[in-house]
Amino acid sequence: MPEVVVRAGRPDDAASIARVHVRAWQAGYAGMLPDDVLAALDVDERRAAWEQRLRDTDEATVLVAERTGEIIGFVACGPSRDEDTAGDAEGEVYALYVDPDGWRHGVGRVLLAAAVERLAARWPVVRLWVLADNARGRRFYEAAGFVPDGSSRAYRRPGVTVDEVRYGHRAGIIRTNRP
Ligand SMILES: CC(C)(COP(=O)(O)OP(=O)(O)OC[C@H]1O[C@@H](n2cnc3c(N)ncnc32)[C@H](O)[C@@H]1OP(=O)(O)O)[C@@H](O)C(=O)NCCC(=O)NCCS
Hints:
Elements: E1 4-8, H1 14-28, H2 35-39, H3 43-55, E2 61-67, E3 70-79, E4 90-98, H4 107-120, E5 125-131, H5 135-143, E6 147-157, E7 160-170
Parallel strand pairs: 4-5
Antiparallel strand pairs: 1-2, 2-3, 3-4, 5-7, 6-7
Helix pairs in contact: 1-3
Coenzyme A (COA) binds next to helix 1, strand 4, helix 4 and helix 5.
């Protein structure tokens, strides 16, 4: 399997990121979000949003994973957006998606490790939200040493209300390789 390279995302990556984003939602959230919501996801809409986000020079970071020059996954991270967390002492993994054709080859693990390393340089604690029914995602994060911190919330978008649970990790001790 060719090597995976992780690098900072650029505005001209927006179309590839949007494609991975939509494909990973459709494969990963089938049965968790309504079929019509997943079918209506639009790569062009996402591309525009990602382009804007990649142009913003705020504290958030997007990292992409490339294999043979093609983007196969990405992670977005930065300061925690939660109001109940300790001021500016916490970081958050906002989104982590790998193209379904590349699942289970360690790409997610490499991206998560890169995001946590970056967050750990600035924030001692890292948190993230995941759909409560997302068994694959929860297993993945738990394997990396994240644990549910007891918080939950409703994730809402038109036609959808589902539960999310929050995980926390002390960034300094993340495990990037499973025993
Ligand atoms: C969750 C997600 C990011 C994981 O990405 P991934 O690239 O498949 O992650 P990894 O390959 O590092 O790890 C996934 C599994 O593959 C296993 N694996 C990793 N490398 C492997 C290899 N070389 N051979 C066999 N299995 C391997 C891991 O041990 C892990 O096993 P598990 O499912 O039993 O826990 C991906 O499935 C995804 O995009 N899902 C949809 C969106 C989502 O749920 N995102 C997270 C919540 S926001």
